[in-house]
Design goal:
Belongs to the class I-like SAM-binding methyltransferase superfamily. rRNA adenine N(6)-methyltransferase family. This protein is an alpha/beta fold and about 325 residues long. About 40% of the residues lie in helices and about 15% in strands. An eight-stranded mixed β-sheet has the order 1-5-4-3-6-7-10-8. The chain has a two-stranded antiparallel sheet with strand order 2-9. Helix 1 packs across helix 4. The longest helix has 15 residues. The chain is elongated and about 75 Å long. The N terminus is likely disordered.
Length: about 325
Amino acid sequence: MPRATTERFSRAHQSSAKKNEAKSSSSMTNPIFNTQRFGQHILKNPATAQKIVDADHQANLKPTDKVLEVGPGTGNLTVKILEKAKHVTAVEMDPRMAAEVIKRVQGTPEQHKLEVMIGDFIKVDMPYFEVCISNTPYQISSPLVFRLLSHRPLFRVAILMFQREFALRLIAKPGTALWSRLSANVQLYAKVDNIINVSRNDFRPPPQVESSVVRLVPIDPPPPVKFEEFDGMNRIIFSRPNKTVRGNFQAKGVMKMLEQNRRTWLAAQEMMVDDTPIASIVDKVLEDAEFTEKRASKLDVDDLLKLLAAFHGAGIHFS
């Protein structure tokens, strides 16, 4: 039988079983699930679910794959994944939805292939997996992406459903209106592309916006860059992406922070702290690397890595 990893689930499932035994195992019209509480919208279109798992389309699932599914809802996508994968670990916040997922596979050949974990995906201990598939609760979109990218060992591919605007920011290119700190940070560690656009009418309840499914493939091996450093620099220069890089470093509080970081780094290296103003050091780095008049909105990941290396060479750090 599929396993739930908390006693809370077991009690909730047992207490509700008799009440619901006369109801269909599908929750297509079931009003008891408070999806808005967890920011979830249940994928109801089976054709869209099938596209996500088909081998010749997106996930390229193999019979040996262990799959992590985030936000299974009532299991409309889960059952299709189970048909193709060796094992599925589904992480669900709502115990009632978790109960529904388990009911969907009880008495079927797939029931031994499913494990349900109840809890917040951002906090649970992730199992080993090769593929992640998620109809992502909108409020955890960014944390989910970066939790996946920081997970080791690396997974093979993630197929993730997001609000259309968020998905477009993930795949944005330098020089476009949606190129942002998020775009750069994600594309440092992964190749991302849009694979399906999904109508709001494919969900219950329909969200206010359209959705998209993206494919995220980690870069292996990952670049030897400390994320906090890369993001710390990007936080500064993308604060106003169409302003010059130098102009963003002139923002209030930036030089004070960099001075403190530099003193801390020099002390850790047992090096003397000189009296050169931090603003002069920053200006020299930008001038020597030819970034003074450039704008973050036009810089690609390689440009950003070059700039970060130049700052590190001058003893300037961002975390």
